[in-house]
Amino acid sequence: MKFFLLASTVVGLASAACPNSCSGHGTCGANEVCSCYDGWGMGGAPGGDCSDRFCPYELAWAGAPNKAGLTHLYSECAGKGVCDRETGQCECFGGFEGKGCGRQSCPDDCSGHGTCEFQNELTFGTVWGDYYDGSAYGFRGLGSGATIPAADASWDADRARACVCDGGWSGINCASRMCASGNDVMDLRANTGVAANAQVQTITLISGGADGGKTAAADAPTDFNGKSFALTFTSKMNETFT
């Protein structure tokens, strides 16, 4: 009888196996525990029977900080989509797209009247106040006032996007026509005897040299040899002229 029980136990151990044979996506290890291949698990967690795919991880759009105070940790589908465990592809919520739902989509694809651009591209635009203030660096002959903004270094600079509308269009999705602008008909000139004067803008180019500190050196003009520049004007109708 003892021999029979021992033999039965040995047979039982020999026939033990991992769950679902690890679904063909892992190896069966000690204690009948699957070691899944990369990208495979069960229900979004490692281990199990390795029957489910993982989806791409991207920086989460929202989430609670960890004990180190860090936010926007990596999350499956960036926390803005549902993982299809059969295909390993994210089904993104409205307003998000791309691998792992890692970038925003633009409203209505800008209605066909604009381009969808990243936040770090929106920092630079041909609008009032968006020019380089060289006087802050000791360059002579330049006025002070508006400065060009620095490149956006925020965590979502190359993830958040918005529409840049074509000329004559406006709105968050570029679906609204723009009308011509003009003075209010009720406006009054302080002095009706003074005729309107044409405005003239003067642009002065001063060489800064390789280190940015050269202002009036004799060889300054050589810094412009073989160089070119272009000016772009943007009207109130959002039309650009270069």
TrEMBL record:
Signal sequence segment: 1-16
Domain EGF-like: 90-101
Database matches in Pfam families: EGF_2
PROSITE patterns: EGF_1 (PS00022), EGF_2 (PS01186), PROKAR_LIPOPROTEIN (PS51257)
Record has DNA-binding as a keyword: no
Keywords, sorted A to Z: Disulfide bond, EGF-like domain, Repeat, Signal
Protein name: EGF-like domain-containing protein
Lineage: Eukaryota, Sar, Stramenopiles, Ochrophyta, Bolidophyceae
